[in-house]
Write a structure and sequence with these properties.
This protein has five helices and no strands. It is an all-alpha fold. The protein has a single domain, classed as 434 Repressor (Amino-terminal Domain) (Orthogonal Bundle). Helix 2 packs across helix 3. The longest helix has 11 residues. The model has no long low-confidence stretch (mean pLDDT 89).
Length: 80
């Protein structure tokens, strides 16, 4: 019998939302951490952060690896 695999979240915005909720943050709180508005966070969660620089900033705030956030590759939790 094959082991059941966890569902892979489809895009960076989904992983961003999932991790934000895990950490108990609202879109407004994350926006304040990133110095952007809640609307921007909402847009990123719908389509994913637009630039690598933004992915890195978001990953830092969400305490996760940028590669996981952007591509679902590697470990979820930040190692350093």
């Amino acid at each position: 019998m094959a082991a059941k695999r966890a569902a892979v979240t489809t895009h960076a915005g989904d992983r961003m939302r999932e991790r934000r909720i895990e950490l108990g943050l609202t879109q407004l709180e994350l926006g304040k951490m990133l110095r952007v508005g809640q609307e921007t966070v909402s847009q990123w969660e719908s389509s994913g952060p637009a630039t690598l620089k933004t992915v890195i900033k978001v990953a830092r705030c969400l305490k996760c690896e940028p590669a996981w956030l952007a591509f679902a590759v590697g470990k979820r939790e930040r190692t350093s």
